[in-house]
Structures are given as C-alpha cells and as structure tokens.
Amino acid sequence: MLFTVNALCRGTGKGYVSICTDMDPGKLRAEAVKDDGTVFPCPIYRFGFPGEDSTASRQWGETAGDRPYSFVVVVPLFEGIDLTVRLALRESGETLATIPFGHIATRIRSRLTYRLRPETAASMRDIDQRRLSGGTYVYITGIYPVEEHEVSCRFTVRYPVLQDSEAKAPCKIAVYDGSATPIQVTPCILEDSVITDPHDAHQRIRQIVAAIHLSDTPRTLCICATPEHGNGNFTCIPASSFSGFFTGALDLTKHVFNDEGYSVWFEQHRATFADIDNQRQICATWDNTPLISIVTVVYNTPVPYLHALIDSLKAQSYAHFEVVFVNVSNDDGTVERELESINDKRFRIVHAENKSIADNTNAGIVQTKGDYIAFVDHDDVIEPDTLYQYMCVLRDHPHSDVLYCDEDLMDESGHYWKPIFKPAFNPDLLNVNNYITHMLMVSRHVLEQVELSPSDVAGAQDYDLTMKCAEQAREIHNVSKMLYHWRMHRNSTSTNPDSKPYAQEAGRIALTRHYERIGVDATVHDSELPFRYRTEYHWNQPPKVSIVVPTKDHVDVLSKCLERVLHATNYPNFDVTLVENNSEDPRTFEYYRDIEQDDARVHVVTWKGTGFNYSAICNYGASQCDGELILFLNNDTEAINEDWLTSMVGFFARPEVGVVGAKLLFHDDLVQHGGIWASMDHCGYFGELLSYKDGGYMETMRYPWNCAAVTGACQMIRRSLFTKIGGLDEQLAVVLNDVDLCLKARQEGYLVVFNPQAKLYHNEHTSRGRDEQDVHKELRAINEQARFYAKWDSSLHRGEFINPNLNQYDGHFKLKW
C-alpha cells in the first residue's frame, strides 16, 4: 500500500497535503496527532468527482499519474507545533501510513509549492470551502463581545443524517488553543435540528449551532467536531482571523452615534451657500410666514461662543423671526456690550435678575411675540436652514404644536460627531429621558394651555415644558434634519453631567408631575445612567394575566419554561393555559397530568386542528382563559429576572398602551430580540447580536421605548384590544402574525412598548426548526410574507422608529448614504 505526498501548502489556519495512492480514499480516514497523543480529525477530499472523465477531472487538480487515486488531507495549523498525519482504514482503524507535518518544514515546502506550482497550490488550498456537501463541516459564524474582555464565539456543525437514530446521537466537540492545548469550555447549544439538505431535498442534515465564551485576546482557535456516526472535522483560525471576526461583529452592531464616517456624511447633507440662496427665494413666495421667536438665556457666555450663536441666527434662510436674549450675566459687562453691538432689529435684549434657569427662560417667553417659540442655548449653534426646515414641516402639518430636530455634538476644535438621529414622537422614550432636547419649538396655541415651568425643575425646564406641551399637542413632529450643534465644554452637560447636579432631581420631579397630570399612579426612580429614569407603576388591584403557551411534545423544553414561570416569578395574579397541539410522545401527556395536579394555576386545553397554525392555536388558547391581560409565551423561553412579568404588566396602567414585549436573549447572552422594525417588504429585530449589557442606540436596549412590533415569543396584550382587532390573523399561520397583531393595535391608536426590563432566554427554533431550512415550510412562509406585505406596505411610515436619515432595513441604526 503506497502513499506519496505530491504537494503541500499552508492556508489560513489550515494546511493542505496532496497525496497519491492506489487505495480508494473512501475507505480511509485521516487524523493529525500531536506528540502527546492528542488527536485531531482531518477530512479527506478527492480532487475529481464521481464518474467524471479523467481529462475533465484534471482541471480540479487530479494528478494521480500511474496511481488511480489522489486526494487532499486538511490539517489544522497551530503555533510552532509539529504534527503527524496518520492515514488509517475507516472500518478497522488500522494505520496504513504516517506523514510528518512539522511547522518549519511545511512552511518551506508550502512556499516552494506557491512559487513553483501555483496551479497545484490553488487546487489544494481551500478545497474544504468548495466541497461542503456530503460530510461533516465546521465553521465559525462570528465572534461577538459579551462582557468586558469576553466574547462569544459562535460556530456551526453540519453533517448528514442517514438514520433517525443519528439525529440525536452524541457529537463530541473539543476546543484547542494555538499550542494545541485543550481549552476547558462547555459549548452552549443554541440550535440542534435536522434540516433539509439545500442541495438535495431528499437528504437530511443535522445542524448544531453552538457558542463558547472566551477572553477577547486574539488567538489561534481550533474547534473539532466528531459525530458518533461518521468522520469528524475541524475549523482553525489564526489570531488575525480571530481579530477579523471580532472587528466584523463590532462593525455589524455599531450604530450611528459611534460612526467615524459621520462628518463625511454631514458634509454631504448639510445646506450649502447655493441651498440657502434657493431657500430664501422659496420663502419669498410663501403667503403665510409665521413669526418664530427664539429664546436664549445668556449667562457669562464666552464671547467666541456668543459670536458663533449670533452668526448662526443671522444666517437663517427663513427671515421672519425674532431673538429674545435674556441677559442674566454678572460679568464685567462684556456680554452686554456684545449683545448691544448686534445691528439687527430682530434681536431684542431683556435684562433680568439671575434666578433659576427656569425663571430666566420664563422671563424670555413672556416677552415673545411669535406664533412659535423656539429655544436655543447660549453656547450652541444651529444650521442656517433650521427655521426654514421647521417651516417646511409646519406647511405640511399646520397643526404641529411641538417640533424638534436631530442634533450632534461639536467639540472645541469645531469637529461634529456623536449624532443623535431621533425617531418620531416616542412617548415611552420620553418617559425615560428628554430625548427631544434640541431644538424644541412649540406653538403659542399649545403654550397658552400649559403652565410655565417652576423653579424646582430648573435644569430640566425644557423636559418639563416638553411633556406639558406634548400632553396637549394636536400633532408632534421631528424635523428629520441635522440642524442643531450642542457644544462640548466642561460646563456643559453634553460632556459633564456633574456640571449641573441639580438637573437630575429636576428631571425626576418633572416626570413625576407628568404622571400626576395624566392620572397615572407611578413612582419615578433614578437609574444607573444620568438623566435617565425608570418608572414603577402601581395598581390598586393587579390585573390577572393569562399566560397562553402553545406546546407540542418537547417536555424537557416546556418544563424549563414553566419552572421559571411558576417558581421564579414575583407577580401575584396569573394563570397558565397550555395549548396542546398534536403531541405524540406519551411523556408529554404524563407531564400535563402531573403539572395540573401540582399547580392549580395551570390547565391544559387541546386544540383540535391539524398541522401547525400558531395564530389559530393562540386564538383558541385565549378563548379558554379569562385574564384581563393575555401573554402569549413560547414554550422554549426561560424567564431570567423574577420581576419580568411585573414590569410588563406595569405599562398597562396607562390606557394608551396596547401591547408590551420583552428583551429576549440567546443562551450565550447575545440579544435576539430588542423590538421589531417594519419597513416595506421586510421586518427585523432591533439590537440583534448585541451583548446583553449593551444599551444600544439611544439606550433603547436598556430602557423602554415604542417600536413597530414585538415578537410573539413573549407578547402581552389587553384582552379587550385583542377581541376588538379580531385576534391573530389565522391566514398568517406561522410568520409575521405577531407583527400583524401589533400593527392592528397601533392602527387602533394604541402604543406598542418594548420593555428590556423583562428579560428571557429564548431557544428559538427548538420546536419547529427554521422555515428557510425546509422547502415546504419555506414556501408557506413566502406566501404568508407576501400576504402580510400586501396588507401593510402602504401603512408602514418611513422614519417613524428609525430616523429617515438612517438605513430603514437595519436594526442597528446605521447611516443611510
């Protein structure tokens, strides 16, 4: 039995050995052995294809010569480690040949192959990437930050399943570092399913998606997988690829606030001199030109800052405005002289005693004459088309009573960065912090209906006024343009929250009074971040929640779900309805009997339908319970925090809230669901694959906000609303029924709330697998998607939850170029 090494080359993390032999490679298995006896499975790949013409097979690298067979063995590359490649009979394990694979010798031989035989090297290298089907295959899909200095490395193992017993047979997974030393980690299995082979609908593949937690130090990493039935394989990446995966994850999840390219985008999108000239001509054609009053409180403003502000105001393309400067400075008169030198009748100076910033602002408001009143801080600047853009929105929406725009930070060198592109009016986001901030403009119509801010909310007087006006406003609009620049300096809260320590408490008081005015019993708490608050809602009698859990077999999964619901939930008033649908495993029915006997809060009902129709199953379950609130909960979820249900119920203390969802995590602590965005022909999750600790854009992964929809895996809705909108659409049996339910609720005027305080693990695809991996399920999903988008596309408003300057098809809030 002869084996001859024909060629050798090294690739990225893998080495390739071309061997000629007179033995059928199908009868062989290969492995690499370290000097301490550690064994690594190595795949074998034939150059040609079955039954192929010998001339044609040579184009793939077939060079057997006088021997009938040639093949490639793929070997892991470690750091300075010598290996021995061992070829053995597949059945008996008898060793037939050993081939040295030293790290120095293979480097030399690889260079010679690339230099002298480049076509041979090309045919060998990455052959494992080109011949994926038919055998075991292991590949890394991403390396994502989880904790400080800790990452989740995700990988997938695929191999053919020829018998049912192989679908659940053990698959050994081992992980090694650059010295080929085992890393003691336990893989977290995220998915384990049998899917249809994408190349052959009659063949099946077992797919295991797993993750391991490692330090974030770049390293060589080798992951080996060996099924109980069949040959093993590995993937091996060097430190540079480890860094590449990690950097790629950061780029994937990086939002616009941290985008280094923002300044280029802004240069391309801000108004030019020509734009301003054109805008002035347009304004001249307008019959209705309301007066806009700008109120600015001036206190010892550095002269350069004051000059910059005045220049930005004078440059406005919309000219019908007035500026009311409230000068409360106590300097040597420098500020007063600068203000008096303004040669423009539109600028007026009001002298006032320096009291609180709230009182000082009010002193300016009462002096205004305009139809609209805007507020600009004394050390900031606005774009020259700011008032023009506000007027354009007002012309389209004349009943607008509260307007605001996008803003960024301007550092002391004049560099614009850290932009905030804001959503349309978002009540729950406003209940967390004053995301509206700049440039607030309110109509006199609404201002006359509210009380001005008292001195005890000084430092948050804009927050107080915003909420008061929002409560009475006919319409609220975001002017989706980057128009306001918040200057960074040591006395500004833009960079130094401690510069105004009183503002934190002022904001809490303002939000508390907002709840008092609207009749909601709630306590406002400070949170872990400055100027952001958490609301604790109160009930005289906590409403009953009926938790509806569709379930079929998978008792091991269901029992984990119910263990957390029944024994690790602090909400006092709930019951559980298990909706049995077509189970076959006798253990399932034994579990039903036991759980009903053990806990009076649980009862089992049986859906009589056939097949799988999530909407019909949930509708039936809802009809069999009586809770004022209904929570649809997947059987493959596990609650993490005991107040998860309490926090969800709380939002229903506000009558305008219709649906509430939770933050769902994969078991490797990456975000699966952070709310749902919906655009034309596509929906997706916000915050997917962020660390569970990452607050996300505008901290929407840490605090509640309103979004288009929330997933049905954990979706709470008022029973009265559920009945009114006809429940779940049973024509959407599997996909987008949860989004459809939320859109129907919003159509009735209700809010959908994503609540990240409720955290659960979700073992998605455990019960049914992925629709796209089964041709029949995929076809059904495509048809239902078409139905959904035909129904809703015309109603999905661009920019409502993702600012129109951002990519409407990305849940990580990225710039739209």
Automatic annotation (TrEMBL):
Glycosyltransferase 2-like domain ranges (all copies): 293-449, 546-725
Coiled-coil parts of chain: none
Pfam hit, one: Glycos_transf_2
Listed GO MF terms: glycosyltransferase activity
Keyword Transferase: yes
Cross-referenced InterPro entries: Glyco_trans_2-like (IPR001173), Nucleotide-diphossugar_trans (IPR029044)
Organism ancestry: Bacteria, Bacillati, Actinomycetota, Actinomycetes, Bifidobacteriales
Keywords: Transferase
Protein name: Family 2 glycosyl transferase
